[in-house]
Amino acid sequence: MATIKEIAQLAGVSAATVSRVINNDPTLSVGEETRIRIFAAAEELGYKPSRLRKLKREERISKQRIGLLMWSSLEDEREDPYFASIRRGIELRCEELGLQIAKVLRGRDGAELAPIHDLAGLIVVGSVHAEDVSTIYARPDRTVFVNHGQSPGGSDSVSLHFEGAMRDSLSHLFELGHRRIAYIGGDETIHRLQAGYPEEGADDPRRQLFRAMMREKGLYLPELDIRSGWSPSGGYEGMRRLLARRERPTAVIMGSDPMAVGALRALQESGMEVPKDMAVIGFDDIEISAYLNPPLTTVRVHTELMGRTAVQLLLERIEGREAAMHVQVNTRLIVRESSGLKRGGNG
C-alpha cells in the first residue's frame, strides 16, 4: 500500500499537507486544485480507497448549499417551541454533515419571496402550498416538506404518526373509565406565499382521528368537538365553552400543550379539580408541561428528530434517489397527574 510520502511526491506537496487533507483537517487552508491533485495521486497509488470515497463524499456534501423555508415567524417560535425544535434538528444535522444552510426564508413575514436558483435543495417547515413553493424553487424532487397538512406529491415529506398518538391518548382515557371525552383543537391551514390567493383550510388530523375513533366506540358527540385557536388563549376560550354546557365531559384531549395551559387556567378559575373533575391530555410535551399544576399528561413529539430526518431525506435526493419518500415519526404518551392514575412510561 502506498505511503503518505509517496502520495506527497506524486502530488508535488508536503507529506504534512497530504496527511491533513486525507484526515479532513478543518483548520487547513488549501486550494481546491491541490485537494484534487492529492486525491488523484492517492487513488492512483491505491491508498485506502474506502477511506478516500468517504472523504470525497464529505467533500461533495460540504459544497452543497440548501435553503430553509419556515412558515412560522421568530415570534411564533418564542410562543410555541414546536417549530423552533424542528429547525434546531435541521441545523444540528446540517452541522454534522457539513451541509450549508445558505438561505433562511420566513413565509409569514409577508415579504415577497424571490425565486431561488442556486440551491441544491429546500426544506419547508409548516403547511405552505406546494404550488407556491414551486414558484420560488422549481425542484420538487429536491424539496422536503416537514409537518405539512397535505401530501406534497413528488416531494419527500416528514410528518407525525398522529393515528398512534390519538389511539394512545384515547386508550389511556378509556382504561381510566372515561367515555364522555371532548377534543379542543385548531384547524389546519395551507398557507399561501402568493398575494391574492386565499389560504386553504383543512381538518386537523388529530380532530379527524378523534372523531373516527370515538365513532368506532359509539361515543362521538359533536357538541364536545370544539374548534379554537392554537394558543393558550384559544385553549382558555375553548374550555370556557365546554364548561358552559350543562353536561360536561369528564376528560378532554387538547390539540397542543400551549392550548392545554389555557384550558387548565379556565378549569382552575371555575373551581374544577384536575383530574378529579376533568382529566386533561395535551400534545407536544413542551418543557413547561412537566411543571404545570398538575403536571400535564401529553403526547411527546420528537420534533428535533423530524428536522434531522428531513435533512437526511434531502441529502439522499441530492445524491440521486429518485422515488419520493414520506416518513412518519412515532410519538409517545407521557402519563402525568393531569389525566389521573399513572401507568408505565412516565416522563
From TrEMBL:
UniProt xrefs under InterPro entries: HTH_LacI, LacI/GalR-like_sensor, Lambda_DNA-bd_dom_sf, Peripla_BP_I
Single annotated GO MF: transcription cis-regulatory region binding
Domain of life, per lineage: Bacteria
Domain HTH lacI-type: 2-58
Signal peptide: none
Pfam family, any one: Peripla_BP_3
Keywords linked to the UniProt accession: DNA-binding, Transcription, Transcription regulation
SUPFAM superfamilies: lambda repressor-like DNA-binding domains (SSF47413), Periplasmic binding protein-like I (SSF53822)
This protein's name: LacI family DNA-binding transcriptional regulator
Native source species: Paenibacillus nanensis
